[in-house]
Amino acid sequence: MLSEISDRMKNLYAAIGLLSVNWATAEYTLDHIIMRVHLDFDGTKIQPSPPISFNRKPAYLRTAFADHPELKDYLPDLEKLLTEASQIAEQRAWCIHGMIDNREEAEFYSIRKIVHGAPKIPTRKFSVRQIEKLSTRAIALTLNLIFLGTASVGVVDKDRADEITREFLGKKGTVLPKGKLFG
After folding, report:
1. More confident residue, 3 or 38
2. In what order do the strands lie in the sheet with 108-112?
3. Count of CB atoms within 10 A of residue 91's CB?
4. What pLDDT digit, counting tens, does each position of 85-116 carry?
5. What is the dihedral of CA 90, 96, 98, 99, to 10 degrees?
């Protein structure tokens, strides 16, 4: 079956697959922050169990960070990351849950997605490059969530966070300063 797929379509499918994997890593990190908030920072006062659906996670975290004195100072940074996460999640949903019109031979692929309540089925166009950039944004979001989660709720021990960050960014050819990244 794979041998019957054109290289053009394989590139599209690979980009969507990479986006899916990188988004899963970002959401896993977000879930880890939520777990720590829920168990160690009075999250059970907000709701009895942590949110599962991505759409419910931002409101939960905003409330938790705003209401807890130890987390309140991190709220502006959290807000930026939640905005970025919401933008990535919205576009990712199109790529993952939409139907790709692969009849077209153009740089952009039409993706149709049923949106409940919409009078007709909306269409968006994505290029492989746009999806790759979205995937890169998901990686950056993951790293920023690790930084925020380590500093605010201790999702990872600071030495381990330093090790993870250096290992990951080192593979990307990034030169990091000597010493501790997490104070």
Report:
1. 38
2. 99-101, 108-112, 123-127
3. 20
4. 999 999 999 999 999 887 766 788 888 888 88
5. 160
